[in-house]
């Protein structure tokens, strides 16, 4: 009976903390004003950086999509940095550029594949001297036509260091409500509400804008296994608002092995929560802000500790069932399993499993370069 009680308490904490946090953010911050001086007429010079590795399938559409942004072309420069793709990525990018001479677009070719973050660093050095905002984006991302101009309007306020987009997944035909979007709705709400409070620790690869002079001063996070999701935390730890905006909508197709991809992204998240604050202190950019420390503590808990409570709770119930034939344990586990029919719950449980596998996998590999 004792083990069942412990299992129940652990599960209660596991579900209780994120649920309370979600409800707290939703009621207290989601509908608050931004407390940022937003100026729709702010028109900075922007550098858009696209890292590519084997993106022949997407690159043309990606560039068409950038071309369709509602923002003056004379204020945009595009830098593609390719890591020796062995498909037609480079050829297609060159052809597209020659057909659109009114857009300033450059192609950098690395001599081999060092990984996405390295490619971003390479591109950064090539940005124009008068660039004011750098926007990183993935080759398979699609932005809503006003995404760029909406995002830039927040930079009118000097307290804003970075702006990331809200992702909505491209739902495959006849799939109904795709699992991935449920996950996104839940997380988008949390990220936007955290941003209104102060900053969100996790940024998204499909749209990630950072003030250029801060990037030149602070740089990108560069510890083993670091990744673009950590850019927000680094900005926030440096004392700047790092926000996810609800009017910057980007879409991303689901592709490749979803399982591998989820594990990789969970690995990056875990490492980010393990290392970014220490990293900010080490490179001496750290500035204490109370709201972000609060946000960080909870998110750290949710990514580093919380998944294990569920694992231990489940394990205790299984032990009770196998060793003591406990009916209470069987009933509790049964209830947990029945709930799996609910999409949001199922997505949550899956995410916990990804985080646990990722934590273990981090012990031997950091996925700097991944299979494509
Ligand atoms: P996911 O969206 O996180 O699953 O990652 P993707 O595989 O879509 O990669 C995100 C972006 O980084 C895409 O534009 C890729 O082409 C690019 N990318 C991934 N690895 C490399 C690399 O080694 N070098 C360069 N230059 N780009 C890369
Ligand atoms: Mn992608």
The CATH architecture assignment of the largest domain turns out to be Alpha-Beta Complex
Binned, the helix content reads: 40-55%
Q: How does the helix and strand content classify structurally?
A: alpha/beta
CATH class of the largest domain: Alpha Beta
Q: Name the beta content range.
A: 5-15%
Radius of gyration: 22 Å
What is the chains' assembly state? single chain
Name given to the CATH homologous superfamily of the largest domain: Spore Coat Polysaccharide Biosynthesis Protein SpsA, Chain A
Mean pLDDT equals 93
Q: Catalogue the unreliable spans.
A: none
Strands side by side in the biggest sheet: 3-2-1-4-7-6-8-5
Number of helices: 12
Number of strand elements: 8
What spatial form do the alpha-carbon principal axes imply? Answer: globular
- Hetero compounds: guanosine-5'-diphosphate, manganese (II) ion
General description of the model:
It is a single chain. With 372 residues, this protein is an alpha/beta fold. It folds into 2 domains: 2-26 and 297-361, no CATH class; 34-295, Spore Coat Polysaccharide Biosynthesis Protein SpsA, Chain A. It is 51% helix and 15% strand. It contains 12 helices and 8 strands. It has helices at 2-28, 59-67, 89-99, 116-125, 147-154, 179-197, 212-218, 231-237, 258-282, 290-324, 327-338, 343-361; strands at residues 46-52, 76-82, 104-109, 133-136, 142-143, 160-170, 208-211, 241-253. Strands 3-2-1-4-7-6-8-5 form an 8-stranded mixed sheet, with helices on both faces. Strand 2, helix 3 (89-99) and strand 3 (104-109) form a beta-alpha-beta unit. Guanosine-5'-diphosphate binds next to strand 1, strand 2, helix 4 and helix 9.
């Amino acid at each position: 009976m004792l083990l069942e009680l412990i299992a129940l308490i652990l599960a209660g904490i596991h579900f209780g903390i994120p649920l309370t946090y979600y409800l707290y953010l939703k009621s207290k911050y989601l509908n608050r004003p931004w407390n940022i001086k937003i100026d729709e007429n702010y028109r900075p010079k922007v550098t858009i950086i696209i890292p590519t590795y084997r993106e022949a399938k997407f690159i043309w559409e990606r560039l068409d999509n950038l071309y369709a942004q509602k923002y003056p072309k004379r204020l945009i420069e595009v830098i593609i940095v390719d890591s020796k793709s062995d498909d037609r990525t480079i050829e297609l990018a060159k052809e597209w550029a020659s057909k659109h001479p009114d857009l300033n677009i450059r192609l950098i070719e690395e001599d081999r594949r060092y990984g996405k973050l390295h490619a971003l660093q390479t591109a950064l050095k090539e940005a124009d001297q008068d660039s004011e905002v750098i926007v990183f984006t993935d080759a398979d991302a699609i932005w809503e036509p006003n995404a760029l101009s909406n995002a830039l309007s927040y930079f009118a306020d000097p307290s804003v260091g970075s702006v990331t987009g809200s992702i909505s997944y491209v739902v495959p035909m006849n799939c109904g409500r795709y699992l991935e979007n449920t996950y996104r709705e839940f997380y988008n709400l949390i990220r936007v509400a955290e941003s209104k409070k102060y900053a969100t620790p996790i940024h998204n690869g499909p749209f990630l804008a950072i003030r250029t002079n801060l990037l030149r001063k602070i740089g990108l996070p560069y510890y083993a296994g670091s990744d673009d999701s950590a850019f927000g935390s680094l900005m926030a730890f440096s004392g700047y608002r790092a926000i996810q905006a609800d009017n910057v909508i980007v879409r991303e197709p689901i592709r490749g092995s979803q399982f591998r991809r989820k594990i990789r992204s969970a690995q990056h998240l875990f490492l980010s929560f393990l290392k970014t604050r220490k990293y900010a202190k080490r490179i001496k950019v750290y500035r204490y802000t109370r709201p972000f420390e609060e946000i960080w503590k909870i998110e750290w808990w949710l990514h580093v500790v919380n998944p294990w409570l569920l694992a231990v709770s489940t394990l205790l119930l299984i032990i009770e069932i196998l060793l003591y034939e406990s009916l209470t344990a069987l009933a509790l586990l049964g209830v947990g399993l029945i709930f799996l029919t609910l999409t949001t719950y199922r997505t949550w449980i899956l995410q916990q499993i990804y985080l646990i596998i990722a934590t273990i996998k981090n012990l031997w590999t950091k996925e700097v370069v991944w299979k494509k």
